[in-house]
Amino acid sequence: MADLKVFEAVSRLGSMNRAARELNTVQSNVTARIRSLEEDLGVSLFQRHARGVSTTPAGQRILPFVGRIARLLTDARTAAHDEGVPSGLLHFGSQETTAALRLSGLLSRFATAYPAVRLAVATGTTRKLLDDVIACRLEGAFVAGPVNHPELRQEAVFREELVLATSPAIGSLDELAGIPELKTIVFQIGCSYRQRLEALLADRGVVTARPLEFGSLEAIISCVSAGVGVTLLPRGILADAFSQGRIAVHEVPPERAEVDTLFVRRADGYVSSAMSAFLDMVHASRA
Which residue, 58, 180, 207, 282, could crosslink 43 as a Cys pair with Cβ 3.0–4.6 Å? Predict the structure, then answer.
C-alpha cells in the first residue's frame, strides 16, 4: 500500500522531488519504491524527462485503482473498530456556498454532540468534489445537482434559489445587454453555478468577456459590488450584502434559479457510525 501511495503522489505532482517533500521523505526512498512497484507489476510506470516525470499509459490505467484500494483498506479499518459509537475521522467535501450557507451551524452542533469524531471538510467546485469522491479521496461531498454517475449514491438535502447579483447601479436584467463584453465573476471551471450563469446570459443574448475567477465568496461579492461584473449565487449567500446596499439582486427564470444540493458518496463505500450520525443530523436540520 505504501508503494501505491508513493505512485499516486508522483503521478499527481509529476516529480519525484515534490512527491518526496509532500510525503516527508527523501527522493531516494521515493525512487526505490517506484522501482519496486514497477518490478512487481512488470511495467514501466513513468517516463523520465528534464522537467520531472510523466505517467505512462500503463500507469494511467492502474491509477484509478489506487484510491479504491486505499479506500477499501480505510473502510476495513473503520469497520473493524466501529462499535456503533461515532468516532474517528470523518472527511467530506462541500461547495464553498453550501459550507457558508448551510454547514457552519450544523458542524458546530455535530462537533458538540460527537466530540470523538475528527471533522475534516474540503471545499471545491462540484467537478473537483465529484472527482475526489469517485477516486475515494473523500467519503462524500455536498455538490450541486444534477449528478449522474453509476458509482455514486446521491440524495437531495437542500434546495437553493439562485439569483443574479450586480452592482446597485444596474436596475434590471435588460440593462446587461447594453454593457459591452460584460464580465462574469465566478469560481474556477467546474462550478455548476458558473455554467448556469453562462447559459442564462447566452439565453438573453448578452456578450461576455473572459470570466474573472476567484477562490472566495467575499472576493466575488466585493468585485460585483464595485461594478466589475456580475455573478450567480444562492439568495441566502447574498442576503447580508444586499441588506447593506452593496449589491442588487435580480430574479432569474425558475429553470435557471432552482438547484438541488446533493450529498454524494460511493455506492460501494462503508458508511461509518460517524457518517451515519452526520447524515441523520443533516436530515434533521431540514425538518
Answer: 58
